[in-house]
Amino acid sequence: MNHDARHKPLRGIRRLSLGALSGLLAGYAAIAVAELVSAAVRPESGPVIAVGGAAIDRTPPGVKDWAIRQFGTNDKLVLQLGILAVLTVLALVLGMLATRWRLIGSLGVLAFGVVGALAATGRSDSTSVSDALPSVAGALAGACLLYWLIGKLARPGRAVQGAGTPNTNTGVSGTNDVDARVEGDAEAVPGEEAGEVPGRDRRGFILAATAAAAASTGAGLAGRALNGTQGQNAVASRKNIVIPAPSSAAAPVPKGAALRIKDISPFMTPNGDFYRVDTALVVPKVDATSWRLRIHGKGVERERTLSFDDLLKMPLIERNITLTCVSNEVGGPYVGNARWIGVRLADLLKECGVKPPSKGGPADQLVARSVDGMTIGSPVEDVMDGRDAMLAIGMNGQPLPFEHGFPVRMLVPGLYGYVSACKWIQDIELTTFDAYDSYWVKRDWAQRAPIKTESRIDTPKPFGRPKSGTVMVAGVAWAQHRGIDKVEVRVDDGPWEEARLATEDTRDTWRQWSYPWDATKGGHTLTVRATDRTGETQTEKRTPPIPDGASGWHSVVVTVD
């Protein structure tokens, strides 16, 4: 075996490695340039966000529930990291492909730009074809960079041939290799193997790659800074808000409503601990000074467009209301209680001439639309039946946090969030359930979804090891707009024992409970169930969240030492 043959595999690996690096740099440049261009369009038009949003829209409900169970509120971060991981692998593959087919590899980068553009313009919140610009510009930059870097791998006197270009030295068509000689090729540089990228060319490639990486980093940082600047007006508008005193204030939380038991959920959930479940990969930052809400549709006699200042001038109500996500599994964490302040929605609808179906109104569904394209459908009858449905502007004494819907969100006590709690709301349309299916209904969730009676054991924790003797079993139960009448606890297969209920705040809030258990050594299963004020006891039958909320008894297994 001659010397050149022995080193040929090594040269091939080195060439593929440099090609892979070129592909990685091209992918990095594409994302960075797209980030920069998205600052001139809108942050949500970036390819990672657009593709991620499209993936969320097309993911089966069961998979979404699995993601929420596994990753909780980090599900969106996991999705974005997964998209970046896939893009990284594809960039490496296209780079290696380009070492043999330079043009095809570069066109592959453009193809993914097309995917990003289609995802951006296909989103429900897309309002212009300009949403495609970040993906297109990024793909063009990445494709050109890959083509240029692969060209740097060719030795002086050599050529990286395009797809199907004949090798003029051998007459063989389609070799397309960076080591393919052209006619009149110079002799190999002394000390270098034939067909290997010489030292001076490797230095040129390294300089080019370094310059590309630096330029891409600069573009990405500039885009990130500019996108951040767009949100500064929203941040400033939130800081400047002074919420007026409500005309109907919430009563103080009654004594005895908040039990002093270690590890029980606090009666009022702090803003930072309140659950967040939505489809927004990037939290919308809406400037309150430019925010508008349009009310229109079937049965609306007087259409209105309201500003945030208009809401501040209206009579405000303040209420303690417990919200629950339909994705909450039995015993899950996606339930929280807060003090909300806002405008009573029924009063606002009446001012527009809207009547509920029970009073002859033609619309039975209220469709709320968010700035990110989400649509949520609520029964008009429930919104206007006297419960404290509201357009909320404050949460626990502060303007709404951005992640919880600033500047305005909707909520309806007694209904799961997916049919009531539209965050970042900008449009209300009156229609019918027959005429329109909202976002989640199109994905096989129920049109109507009152919150089911549920209870949860907060302490002891699953697989805990309490000491023998008196162990305080405690937790929360909820049946919004009906109220909790009784909570019972069972140890192993023993009889149901009634727990002590904390004082009720309102029927729209959860209720804490406790049960002093005389624990004996060994393994035990603790189970809880609740009965609401209508006399209905939560069912033992386990059902998943889809289509209208999970049901079943919550149990924990402990070992008493």
State the helicity in percent bands. Answer: 25-40%
Q: What is the SS-derived class? A: alpha+beta
Order of helices and strands: HHHHHHHEEHEEHEEHEEEEEEEEEEEE
Secondary structure tally: strands? 18
Summarize, please.
With 561 residues, the chain is α+β, with helices and mostly antiparallel strands. The chain is 33% helix and 20% strand. It is built from ten helices and 18 strands.
Describe this structure as you would to a colleague.
The protein has 561 residues and is α+β, with helices and mostly antiparallel strands. It is 33% helix and 20% strand. It has a 5-stranded mixed sheet. Helix 4 (75-98) runs antiparallel to helix 5. The protein is globular. The N and C termini lie far apart (74 Å). 44% of the residues are buried.
Topology:
Blueprint (H helix, E strand, L loop, with lengths): L2 H39 L5 H12 L2 H11 L3 H24 L3 H21 L10 H20 L46 H41 L52 E6 L6 E4 H5 L3 E9 L10 E10 H7 L13 E6 L4 E5 H4 L6 E6 L2 E2 L9 E3 L13 E7 L22 E6 L9 E10 L5 E8 L4 E3 L1 E2 L9 E9 L2 E11 L21 E7 L1
Parallel strand pairs: 1-10
Antiparallel strand pairs: 1-2, 3-4, 4-7, 5-6, 5-10, 7-8, 7-9, 11-12, 12-16, 13-14, 13-17, 15-16, 17-18
Helix pairs in contact: 1-4, 1-6, 1-7, 2-4, 2-5, 4-5, 5-6
Key descriptive features of the protein:
five-stranded antiparallel sheet, five-stranded mixed sheet, 10 helices
